[in-house]
Amino acid sequence: xxxxxxxxxxxxxxxxxxxxxxxxxxxxxxxxxxxxxxxxxxxxxxxxxxxxxxxxxxxxxxxxxxxxxxxxxxxxxxxxxxxxxxxxxxxxxxxxxxxxxxxxxxxxxxxxxxxxxxxxxxxxxxxxxxxxxxxxxxxxxxxxxxxxxxxxxxxxxxxxxxxxxxxxxxxxxxxxxxxxxxxxxxxxxxxxxxxxxxxxxxxxxxxxxxxxxxxxxxxxxxxxxxxxxxxxxxxxxxxxxxxxxxxxxxxxxxxxxxxxxxxxxxxxxxxxxxxxxxxxxxxxxxxxxxxxxxxxxxxxxxxxxxxxxxxxxxxxxxxxxxxxxxxxxxxxxxxxxxxxxxxxxxxxxxxxxxxxxxxxxxxxxxxxxxxxxxxxxxxxxxxxxxxxxxxxxxxxxxxxxxxxxxxxxxxxxxxxxxxxxxxxxxxxxxxxxxxxxxxxxxxxxxxxxxxxxxxxxxxxxxxxxxxxxx
Length: 470
Ligand code: GLY
Ligand code: MN
Ligand code: MN
What we know:
Creatine Amidinohydrolase, Chain A, domain 1, three-stranded antiparallel β-sheet, binds glycine, Creatine Amidinohydrolase, 17% strand, 2 domains
């Protein structure tokens, strides 16, 4: 049992907002389970991680819990179902909050043992207009809801009314979660600062160990260990996603995992890693010379990626669309590819031609960012709600009908992460082969532009070299 770092009143406010949304939609009841525990092998489970939607509305991190919000009458009421107190189980698995303590601790109106869920749900669903639950996120949930509704329907002859419609609760929650409140922003800033410190430590360790020499060679996993050490020593509970520590050409594999490749002097190392703190992610990428000194070819490409990131940062401001930072970064990258001969001007033409043809995708094949929050790839609509679809080019250059991209507003959080990845290929200058570079920071959209929450680790090539010399 661990208690949330955010006041319980904040979660109550979020539940009230859901209650108001249900009311505005004609009344109804929302049902939301937390995540299940997942077996890893034999008697071992994966480390438990609560469901983000559930945590957003409760701050409760125990498994085996459900939240029910009703808003049919005047009031909005919240009911928690949680694991019952059980001395035997608590001796093995840890202290449980239990239903008696839950209302005072979490601010819910009522709490019951989860053992009574199936017995109580048909009654709670009776005479409700609609039932809201997360679609396609919890295996078996639809079947469970169907079972409860079946029991309500069986009592229709006795005067019970069965909900007439079912709706996706994620629709309401995604929109709320996209706009971070000040409590969330405070945690995101702290998570970003811890992760930045971990990147600094990894860079310094890399240079120091290569200088000193280390038996068996400096390996990717040595730097991963430094990251984890720094996350945990500052109280972060876990990495927000599997850390990428990639030596040399491994950086050209976008989802490479920290492995055991030896880092060689003269090679670059790409680290994409961030901690999860109190349920909130951070997501940082830095690319640095393993021994602390960029080669001229590495520096040339690095400065292009950095300029692309600066262009994307300048385009991250209220009123701009989610795609504007990507378009700004892509233009700088495409120009850089022509200037360096990665793309031949004779063959590919001007920067506009390269963007139109998509030739830049040989070296830059991903988007420049994503929403970030409790989930590293956070929820939230990437298109503007209420807008009309129009014919547009998608990320792969196909013409498709889609809504215009989301308009950025203060309080939204997104990553800015351009890169260049050069795999050996005919026609590509050899000096650039096996160079993979990405630079990623986490941006909070503010009234004027954006705040980078992860700049506790330097990004300019000279500053990185200075840090690694120190
Ligand atoms: N680390 C995951 C990402 O950058 O999207
Ligand atoms: Mn990212
Ligand atoms: Mn990342």
